[in-house]
Amino acid sequence: MKNLKERILELKKEKNAVILAHYYQESDIQDVADYVGDSLGLSQEAMKVEADIILFAGVHFMAETAKILNPTKKVILPDLKAGCSLAESCPPEDFKKFTEAHPDHIVITYVNCSAEVKALTDIVVTSSNAVKIVNSIPKDKPIIFAPDKNLGKYVMEQTGREMLLWDGACVVHEAFSLDKLIALYKQNPDAQIIAHPESETHILKTANYIGSTAGMINYVKTNPSNKFIVTTEAGILHKMKQEVPDKILIPAPSNEDNTCACSECGYMKMNTLQKVYNCLLHESPEIFVPDTIMKKALIPIERMLELS
Ligand code: 13P
Ligand code: SF4
């Protein structure tokens, strides 16, 4: 009797499908994926796919972005309810009013938002290119940055630019506890703290390195240190352990009093191996984006890819 992973690999061939997975997906899903990456890498990869079907093992806004970049492909997502607190914090109607109230501003949105919000945007960014892209905007141009206020504050600090911030946050990165992090560091003073810029300023101040998930993986590979406290979603540890099997990786503690000592994204974890199998088998749930939104949302995503 074949196991679920073997059946998924077989189905993938049969259906001419590829699986793209984010680093926050559970380990078993990452193991059956053709490509595992951060938001930017996944967008770049989605654009190149020649297979008929893209199974996106990630959250809804990522699958939507893949559909916008490669609209002739069937894009499927194991669980349509796999959302994101940042995307949910920014309803398109409210965001439209906000941009209309500031018509002289350039609108920059973090990729973690809906296709409708992207359609109201001038340039999309991810955590890997936000600083570079904001630096490329002429100094006299005022900027709206949405929906992540924490990433926004970090970009403001790095670029010296004032920006009008939307009040959104990632529930996972906001849950890291400074007190617990300091206590953990005291027990491991030889460790480097690495953090994702969706984290709050007080957490980022402790970090030796701040970057996207791909940036963090690259840092642990290239930095000579042997021990790291990892301040992002715990799914990243799977890839990190594969890349640096001899180094010590400690997940940063969250405020939540849960059984897991680390932070997990409940949205990302809605996808399971069984749902990946069912999704491939039935080619459903499928992602649909209305044509008008698709055309408008493509422009700021393409601008981002050009500037990356
Ligand atoms: P990156 O993959 O760009 O690092 O973003 C992390 C994240 O929270 C995705 O939802
Ligand atoms: Fe959204 Fe945060 Fe989950 Fe990423 S980790 S999908 S930003 S809620």
From TrEMBL:
Its UniProt entry gives the catalysed reaction(s) as: iminosuccinate + dihydroxyacetone phosphate = quinolinate + phosphate + 2 H2O + H(+)
Indicate where this protein is primarily found.
cytoplasm
Q: Which GO terms describe its cellular component?
A: cytosol
Cell location: Cytoplasm
Pathways involved:
Cofactor biosynthesis; NAD(+) biosynthesis; quinolinate from iminoaspartate: step 1/1
Q: Which positions are annotated as binding iminosuccinate? A: H22, S39, Y110, V111, N112, S127, H196, P197, E198, T213
> Could you confirm whether the keyword Transferase appears in this record?
yes
Top-level taxonomic group: Bacteria
List, in alphabetical order, the GO biological process terms annotated in this UniProt record.
'de novo' NAD+ biosynthetic process from L-aspartate
Per its UniProt record, what Gene3D superfamilies does this chain match? NadA-like
What's one GO MF term for it? metal ion binding
Q: Name the cofactor(s).
A: [4Fe-4S] cluster
Q: Which residues are recorded as binding [4Fe-4S] cluster?
A: C84, C170, C265
User: Which InterPro entries does this chain map to?
Assistant: NadA, NadA_sf, Quinolinate_synth_type2
Which EC number(s) are documented for this chain? 2.5.1.72
What Pfam families would the database entry show? Answer: NadA
What UniProt keywords are attached to this protein's entry?
Answer: 4Fe-4S, Cytoplasm, Iron, Iron-sulfur, Metal-binding, Pyridine nucleotide biosynthesis, Transferase
Co-factor remark: Binds 1 [4Fe-4S] cluster per subunit.
Q: Which PANTHER family did the record assign? A: QUINOLINATE SYNTHASE, CHLOROPLASTIC, QUINOLINATE SYNTHETASE A
Family, per entry: Belongs to the quinolinate synthase family. Type 2 subfamily.
Role, per record: Catalyzes the condensation of iminoaspartate with dihydroxyacetone phosphate to form quinolinate.
- Official protein name in the record: Quinolinate synthase
